[in-house]
Amino acid sequence: MIRAVLDWIEDRTGLVSTVAHFLDEDIPASSGWQQVFGSVAVFLFMTQAFTGILLGLNYGPTPGEAYNSLRFIMSELTGGALIRGLHHWGASLMVVVVVLHMIQVFVWGAYKKPREATWMVGVVLFLFTMAFALTGYLLPWDNRAYWGTVVTTQIAGGVPVMGPYVVRLMGAEGGVGVVTFARFYAAHVLILPALTALLIVFHIYLVRRHGAAPVPGDELVPRKKFYPVQVFKDTAAISGMFALLFGLAVMAKAPLGRLADPTDTAFIPRPEWYFQFLFQLLKYCEGPLEVFATVVLPGLTVGALFLVPFIDRGPMVKVTKRTVAFASVALCALVWGGLTAAAIVETPEAAAIAEREGPMDWVELTPEELAGVGYFKQEQCGSCHTLGLAQEDKPGPNLGSGGVSRNAAWMIAHFKQPAQMIPGSQMPTVALKGKELNALAAFLLKLTPQNAAKMQEIPAYATEGALVYQRNQCSICHKANGAGADAGPPLNGLAKRRKADWVMAHFLNPQKYDPDSTMPSYKFSAKENTAITTYLMALP
Amino acid sequence: MVASKDVDRRNFFVRGTHVLGAFIGAALGIPALIYMLKPPRSIAPGGWVDAVDLNTLKPRIPEEVSFRRIRKDGWKLITERSTAWVVKLSDKEVVAFTPQCTHLGCAYHFEESKGEFLCPCHTSNFSIEGAVLNGPAPRPLDRYPVKVEGSRLLIGTIEAAKADGGKRGA
Fold first, then answer.
1. B9: nearest CA in chain A?
2. From B17, which residue of chain A is nearest by alpha-carbon distance?
3. Touching check for A154 and chain B: CB below 8 Å?
4. Residues 85-144 of B with CB under 8 A from A
5. What total number of domains does chain B contain?
6. Chain A residues in contact with B13 (beta carbon < 8 A)
7. Quick check: A236 and B21 CB within 8 A?
8. What would the pLDDT profile of A292-330 be if each residue is shown by its tens digit?
9. Is residue B25 part of a domain?
10. Which of residues 60-89 of A touch B (CB under 8 A)?
């Protein structure tokens, strides 16, 4: 039955014999484990395509939407975090494997005549890999993505003569925005995959045309077949790499920071690890030297890579005799490793920002700040924001993390029109007005990582009492915890002077207790009266 | 003997390649299927929405009422306008029908002259109780869960209405 189906397919398409012909390739006797990297790279490319398509099924490719949809993929879809993890770590491994493949070919001298074109196409594929990494970096649209791309476009803009055109091509003339995003997205999912797939086919065609490179001595021994031994070795290497990738995806969660925030001054942009050396090099090349790091060095490196087959034109020798090749690789690794290590060492701690100060106990908050707690609860801010050191997976940023220091004006503008301050923010408008917004901001300014947990345990009477206090503008005449005027008696220490019953009755009719009192009477409901009195009696 | 040893060796490599390939295929394919087919874990916002004052309804005359509700649309929370056909069948019974015909989801309307709901797409007719009178509709009109608080009619989620309607249709 299977035989008959295969015969039919063979007769009508020739596919069976094509595959057989492909597998039946003669390879030199010296072939072995050192030649697996090309297959692993092709496998990783296909895995990236597969996981990329899966991400694309639930991804909104515009800023804001991109971030929210990726968060949806990672936290609400079963398997979503795994697939994003595979795509994220797959990108890193892709760079590693492509570089290993190049090193192997370079060290063995497999680029020599007649395989120059194969090598040069390979260099282009390496550049495509880096372009994939660069464009994909922006697509999560978190702070890391946004600021990393801001730096990239600035570097590109600094290139003499061509700079402005490159920036225009990146759609980043007026800063990183929707056009930049569209360009990067299109490059990442339309242009690069198509070109890369075509070039991979061409690359493999060239490998087949010239055959795997033999080493001296191969001509004396019979040649081997590609299938099944070398195919098994390739598959085993692919499986090892896949196990590593899967392990990374499961154990190391792919990062998704806060939504990109162009007004965030505290964020420290850092490129992906394989670009860190260039980033570091820029630190040493100031002023007129900058062009050295941005153009001259990368240009010379890529140029040299292209010309390798024409610089080294000697005959094939045993790999053990290629001292110069080994030395060049070692030198490059040393320079790259040194720069990367320096970049990592010099990365400042993210928490090195001056922290706010706030009291540990709620009784030290001013009535306004305490009312802010009440508004915080009333508006259910806590359903999207985490407060303390806890790392919950809520959509909004952790407000008690201490890293973000905003001033009150920024916060109030953000409360009124969230997306105005952070494009793409899904936060609903805070339904509070003037003084209420001030109170909410005042509270948030007193929030620190240390007191955040405590601030969630404030008794209800305190926040409700403070809300009554705030609504009735008691601070116009009274001082409490250092805030307010001195026209009336200070309210700290009230519990030492008066009983709760007295305070409650006094609110309703102050003149009954002191005919000369200028305090207006407050027709509180029993509930309001209890709340504000209990609160005031608790003041130290 | 030598030949059979070679065959064993060859078989080992062939089978090894197949087994490893199958493992990778499963490790990628199974999560991919789950990822595409399993509904999201998100909690539907839902809840009850205040739709209409019962005192404004005439007995046994359907009224199209509109209200705003929050719905989860993929990764977005959207506020959208929804409608329901509300009928006060008696002083004790009020029903709210979802505004789509149970045949193919067209919007139907109330024909006052006939006292029936009519779907313009394939001329399904429904009574004011929602029963199919005529046409290809497979089941009665779907009903929103409803709740009366004072004189206000509260309407539940469309998901609940669909789930309930599906059961009645079966």
1. A229
2. A232
3. no
4. none
5. 2
6. 228-229, 231-232
7. no
8. 888 888 999 999 999 999 999 988 888 889 999 999 999
9. yes
10. 60, 65, 68-69, 71-73, 75-80, 82-83, 86
Contact criterion met (CB below 8 Å) for A246 and A53: no
pTM for the model: 0.78
Is B170 part of any domain?
no
State the DSSP string of A184-227.
Answer: HHHIIIIIHHHHHHHHHHHHHHHHHHH-SPP-TTGGGS--EEII
Q: Is-contact A158 A292, C-beta < 8 A?
A: no
Query: Are A68 and B28 within 8 A, CB to CB?
Result: no
Q: Do B34 and B54 belong to one domain?
A: no
Q: Taking CA atoms, what residue in A is nearest to B78?
A: A426
B156 with B94, same domain: the answer is yes
- Mean pLDDT over residues A369-393, rounded? 75
Specify the DSSP class assigned to residue A83: H
Q: Write the pLDDT tens digit of every residue in A249-300.
A: 999 989 888 788 887 777 788 888 998 898 898 888 888 888 888 888 899 9
- Looking at the fold, whether B70 and B153 belong to one and the same domain comes out as yes
The nearest alpha carbon in chain B to A66 belongs to B75
Asked if A247 has any chain B CB less than 8 Å from its own CB, the reply is no
Task: Give A527's contacts (C-beta < 8 A, 6+ positions apart).
Answer: none
Q: Are residues B8 and B77 in the same domain?
A: no
Chain B residues with beta carbon closer than 8 angstroms to that of A65: 75
Task: Locate the chain A residue with the closest alpha carbon to B23.
Answer: A239
C-beta atoms of A235 and B16 within 8 A: yes
How much is the average pLDDT of B18-25? 97
Q: Which residues of B fall within a CB distance of 8 Å from A32?
A: none
Summarised one tens digit per residue, pLDDT across range A80-126 is 999 999 999 999 999 999 999 999 999 999 999 999 999 999 999 99
Q: Would residue B101 count as lying in a domain?
A: yes
Angstrom CA distances, A393 to A62, A78, A397, stand at 23, 15, 9
Three-class HEC string of A138-186: CCCCEHHHHHHHHHHHHHHHCCCCCHHHHHHHCCCCCCCCHHHHHHHHH
If asked whether residues B131 and B79 sit together in one domain, one would say yes
Measured between beta carbons, the chain A residues lying within 8 angstroms of B10 are 228
Assign residue B68 the CATH number of its domain. 2.102.10.10
Residue A456 reports pLDDT greater than 50 = yes
pLDDT on residue A240: 97
Cβ pair A232:B31 closer than 8 A: no
Name the strands in the sheet holding B49-53, side by side, starting at the edge strand that comes first in the sequence. B49-53, B152-155, B146-149
CA distance B82 to chain A (A): 20
Looking only at the bridges linking them, the beta strands covering A479-480 and A483-484 are antiparallel
pLDDT category of residue B170 using cuts at 50, 70 and 90: very low
CA–CA min distance A495, chain B (Å): 43
Domain range for residue B27? 1-38
